[in-house]
Amino acid sequence: TSGHLRHVESMAQLPSGAGRISHLNAVVLGESLASEEHDLVFPSPEFSSQALLSSPEHGFWSEIAKEFYWKKGWGDGPIVEQNLDVRKGTVKIEWFKGATTNICYNALDRIIGRGDGNKIALYWEGNEPGHDAKLTYNELLEKVCQLANYLKDIGVKKGDAVVIYLPMLMELPIAMLACARIGAVHSVVFAGFSAESLAQRILDCRPKVIITCNAVRRGPKVIHLKDISDAALLECVNNGVSVGVCLTYENQSAMKKEATKWVEGRDIWWQDVTPKYPTTCAVEWVDAEDSLFLLYTSGSTGKPKGVLHTTGGYMVYTATTFKYAFDYKPSDIYWCTADCGWITGHSYVTYGPFLNGASVLVFEGAPNYPDAGRCWDIVDKYKVTLFYTAPTLVRSLMREKTEYVTRASRKSLRVLGSVGEPINPSAWRWFFNVVGDSRCPISDTWWQTETGGFMITPLPGAWPQKPGSATFPFFGVQPVIVDEKGNEIGGECSGYLCIKSSWPGAFRTLYGDHERYETTYFKPFPGYYFTGDGCSRDGDGYHWLTGRVDDVINVSGHRIGTAEVESALVSHPQCAEAAVGIYAFVTLIDGVPYSQELRQSLVLAVRSQIGAFAAPDKIHWAPGLPKTRSGKIMRRILRKIASRQLDELGDISTLADPSVVDQLIALTDS
Ligand code: 6R9
Predict the structure, then answer these.
(1) Is the pLDDT reported for residue 20 higher than 50?
(2) 415 vs 429: CA distance, rounded Å
(3) Record's CDD domains (predicted)?
């Protein structure tokens, strides 16, 4: 329960302005971790229920939830029902169950109702400089309603899935909000995914409609999304699943209507239908626990997991985390570089910011087009105040000349944010000193698709930062670090990061596979949610995330399962086995010779089955792979060989055939 003490401490700072939490508190927080667990004395429920500030279970989140519109309230009962302990039965998490609301209503109608209808909701910056657009909250609501009415008209109902395969056009958040308005469950598929990945997701959630566009420009390239959708839909038909409608947005700057391949009876132009529908649309009131969206994410086995988020808790959580972690003010201009195809684009391009009535910038293009200064030019053009991005982007722009940054003034910037991977201290310092002119705090937000919102994050005005540390848990979040046996460890330590109690934004299940949900997340350390990440905590109580401890890897900030890349490689007719880092060790069918062409066609297999971002940078020919006697590949050894740390190979005597190690070393630069 040390986590409980910690969040009570941090919550106590919330309403009085976080600015006063001092270094002292950070030290106190650190010490509390080491305190005797059994010395904690909790307030009685009677006291908590009447207190100004109480624990998340009692009232804390219900106070915050009152800022939103609920058609029907949650009554006097507990606001959360949870069991995270597999030993006690089925894992279950429910927040505000029985209450009804609508997240689109809260994100648009409620904001308009309070007088912000003419405020800009969306700024859109196209791939080409000078190509832009914007929408006020009023206009955004009208567009959302027109699409919602069309979807209803073709028979999309509450609970139906809708797959969205769109790039960063304004139509992407519009489509998400339109689904939410009518209670349909959206599943956005990142527009960098291949036809096969798209088909796999369609086959799993069986949507009535897929929403796409004909093509998009990213940097100098044109990507033909409609062709990819066609291929995916064909693959689905071959597997017995047909999607009735392919609603296609004509993205004129990338491709003309006339050039687009068309399937009569199935394909519909977005621009042909939506203008005909009314600009108002009645809201579908849904239970707080009704599904909002599915988002597929990579796991450590081949099949992606359909992470399911519900409505009420997710709404309250994304809005609140956005507000505090970015110190959001109504005058802010917010830009998150993430694509809506990832969770960051769900929680912190679309829902969190709109629920706060923020002005959000959406960028269609690539950060290095037409040159490496594009991001900073955009910051100046829109006077961006909050800039949220990923370490991979920071690192890639850091390699370029400083003049690309300094030619822009960047004086509007107030808070910077980072997500997706640990940000190494040198990248942190460059981001802080060069981009932010040593003036803007960095919110290094640790969280996951599964968590829905920030879990460990700085409150930028509150406590001192340490470059590379995500600092402390958000209000009500109870992270614990456990050892291999699942024992909580206190004080300065490192181990596996788990969460002890639920939070409103938590995912509720894996779509169609509650058993896999329990096995993956709740069985490894019974009693806890297991994050899959390693973490250490320093003497001041700061958290340092050390990366995945399972077989999920991070490529350019995108989360991808090693198994997905492996199965793409192995599907190649001449490949017998593969293990991926994304430095790939590849074993060929006996007798097949190594060649440059084969190397290229293997890379192509990954590009076409998953997407270009997952293509291995290096293929290392492997006559054999280091395996245990039970056949498990020892990736630890592969990592050492890949990074040339040959004197740190460790114990290789448990290998079924230790001689493969020497063979692999000999082929290092083949
Ligand atoms: C939001 C998102 C989740 C995994 C997570 C961890 C890594 C994310 C991080 C971070 C260190 C941060 N991660 N943010 N590691 N510091 N600030 O990225 O979700 O795509 O599901 O990835 O990303 O390893 O477990 P998702």
Answers:
(1) no
(2) 14
(3) ACS
